[in-house]
Design brief:
Blueprint (H helix, E strand, L loop, with lengths): L1 H20 L10 H12 L8 H7 L19 H11 L2 H4 L11 H5 L15 H12 L2 H13 L4 E14 L9 E11 L3 E10 L3 E10 L2 E5 L6 E5 L14 H4 L4 E11 L2 E12 L3 H9 L10 H4 E13 L5 E12 L4 E2 L2 E2 L2 E13 L18 E2 L9
Parallel strand pairs: 6-14
Antiparallel strand pairs: 1-2, 1-13, 2-3, 3-4, 4-5, 5-6, 7-8, 8-9, 9-10, 10-13, 11-12
Helix pairs in contact: 2-7
Length: 391
């Protein structure tokens, strides 16, 4: 009799769940407007007197139906959140996988911005929408503070090894028959004297080339792979980069950077913080300001705001939890060229250029690292740099 009674209670409970526990009304769903309002609030973005809608529309984060309708009062779906977050973090413009526009919500899934195992076209409840936003920023301040310690730590010497891929897109597809090349970099850095590095470039149809160079003061000394001769060029202000470690670098473009603590991991027996930073610079004058801060307002005659439309990137930092030293950085960075840019009177053919790969750091503050210009390079001939692109 007790079993029958318990089964009856269980049956009533199960039958009531869809009604009392799972049923939702329109009032329980988060609207598109509520989501973007809370997103901007949690991110701590200064709107500069603009409304949230104006801010997001100007930056291409909030797209409407083409008729000025943004449906801010309509319930938002997981897929729509995916589109908004992919644009908000700059991943849609970086577009590492070259996806169609109606597929770019995938970047939010790839980054883990959305919860797992959801039906993408389901409406999102207010509590779930709030939770998604809170998780995005739950450890962003902690991540920022860790990188701030990294930038302020003293690094007199180090070694760097990088494997990179350079991708590009051309305005005229017939100009060059390849769209990517591979590059390796091995470098030793000594803040007291300079940098020594070997750069290997593997170019399709051309082959592998290796360039050896020293950066000493305001000069770059290069050893030609063709004739084995040394040449140099002067870049006024280059030596001031040695003072870059005294700047609060995470603060320079903080408004254009989002920080996200991913996890802790282990590399070569060292426990590391894993931190993602997402950079989206739509006002390239800010990069000009950074160069001015470094005393390099005329770096190689180049003005970023004249040359580029915008820059987008994702940088994953692996930071030693004990020493606050960077162990590795995974990068994916894309920059868009403006139309009408000229180099030596000829139009620059590139639409965009993207660098991706990994940089590994070691031997930080190793006293055995000493960068000294070899005697054979001291009689190098001066090389005149070509005119930089201008609009």
């Amino acid at each position: 009799m007790k079993k029958i009674f318990l089964l009856a209670l269980l049956s009533v409970f199960l039958i009531s769940i869809p009604v009392s526990g799972l049923a939702q009304t329109a009032d329980n769903y988060m609207t598109r407007g509520e989501f973007v309002e809370q997103l901007i609030q949690q991110a701590g973005i200064d709107l500069g007197g603009k409304t949230v809608q104006q801010y997001l529309v100007e930056r291409g984060i909030l797209l409407g139906d083409g008729k000025g309708n943004y449906n801010l009062n309509q319930p938002i779906t997981y897929r729509q959140i995916g589109f908004i977050l992919s644009r908000f973090y700059g991943l849609s413009k970086m577009d590492a996988h070259q996806l169609k526009e109606n597929e770019k919500y995938i970047y939010a899934l790839e980054e883990g911005f959305l919860p797992r195992y959801v039906t993408l076209d389901n409406k999102v409840t207010s509590s779930e929408g709030k939770k998604i936003i809170e998780l995005l920023f739950s450890k962003s301040k902690e991540a920022y503070e860790i990188l701030k310690k990294v930038s302020s730590s003293e690094m007199n010497t180090m070694r760097l090894n990088a494997d990179l891929k350079i991708g590009m897109d051309f305005k005229d597809k017939n100009i060059i028959s390849f769209d990517s090349m591979n590059m390796t970099v091995s470098a030793e850095m000594d803040t007291n004297t300079g940098v020594y590095e070997k750069i290997g470039i593997d170019i399709p149809l051309i082959g592998y080339k290796e360039i050896e160079e020293y950066i000493i003061g305001d000069r770059i000394y290069m050893k030609s792979p063709e004739d084995n001769q040394w040449v140099y060029t002067t870049v006024q202000g280059l030596s001031t980069l040695k003072g870059a470690e005294n700047m609060k670098m995470p603060d320079v473009l903080s408004e254009d950077t989002l920080y996200r603590m991913v996890s802790n991991s282990v590399i070569d027996g060292k426990e590391v913080y894993v931190i993602n930073t997402y950079i989206k610079i739509t006002d390239m004058k800010k990069l000009d300001e950074v160069m001015n801060m470094l005393g390099m307002n005329d770096f190689m005659g180049m003005n970023y705001s004249n040359m580029f439309e915008g820059m987008y990137g994702k940088y994953t930092y692996y930071v030693d939890t004990k020493t606050n030293n960077i162990v590795r950085v995974d990068i994916a960075s894309k920059i868009y060229f403006k139309d009408g840019i000229l180099e030596n009177g000829q139009p620059v053919p590139l639409k965009w250029e993207m660098i991706s790969g990994s940089m590994n750091y070691s031997n930080i503050n190793d006293p055995d690292i000493k960068v000294v210009l070899p005697d054979e390079a001291k009689n190098a001939q001066e090389l005149t740099m070509p005119d930089m692109p201008q609009k």
